[in-house]
Write a structure and sequence with these properties.
about 20% helix; 5 helices; alpha+beta; about 190 residues
């Protein structure tokens, strides 16, 4: 369950003029209906091979960490607590990811921008349950993925607004207000 391939940290240069990795995409009203209506996405990778991001404001419910580890066939001994789960996107909804503060470095962590990182291993979730994980985290199943040039084309069409990543939006804000808060920070060019 919590096993997924993360993008390579040494990915080739971006396909379009500018990479939006490390930034937040905000769905415009043009994206109505599931899965991206009012979505805010942390972009983890954007290069000539495509893009990958995690939706940060579509909660699924809270679950015990031990139960998630057991479902993944991992050791849950000593693990305590619950985590809020999010629908990270429509692609591979069985794949689990942990978006987290960058001070934590797991075996399978991809540093996105020096403040936020993405991990895919059960070890990160286990460390959270043992109280030695990242200061801040968001556990998501599935991801938003784009083929080469697909996100570039969507950006040209204006279906996404872009703002700088802000850990307060990624981890702290009331999830019901994240889209409104992100839109309030958007300044059109």
């Amino acid at each position: 369950m919590l096993h997924a391939a993360l993008p390579s940290p040494t990915a080739p240069s971006v396909s379009g003029a500018t990479s939006v990795a490390g930034q937040l995409l905000i769905a415009t009203p043009a994206l109505s209906g599931p899965p991206f209506e009012r979505a805010v996405i942390m972009v983890a990778q954007h290069d000539r091979n495509g893009a990958l991001g995690i939706v940060i404001n579509h909660p699924l419910g809270e679950r015990p960490i031990a139960g998630l580890l057991q479902a993944a066939g991992a050791d849950s001994s000593g693990v305590k607590g619950n985590v809020q789960l999010y629908l990270g996107g429509p692609v591979d909804p069985q794949a689990g990811f942990v978006l987290h503060s960058a001070e934590y470095h797991g075996d399978n962590s991809l540093d996105i921008d020096g403040r936020v990182a993405l991990s895919n291993g059960v070890q990160t979730l286990r460390d959270i349950g043992l109280g030695k994980g990242p200061r801040q985290s968001l556990v998501a199943f599935g991801y938003a993925g784009w083929a080469p040039m697909q996100l570039d084309n969507e950006l040209r069409q204006g279906v996404w607004n872009i703002i700088p990543e802000d850990p307060a939006l990624v981890f702290d804000d009331d999830r019901a207000k994240v889209w409104n808060d992100a839109m309030a920070r958007y300044k059109p060019n």
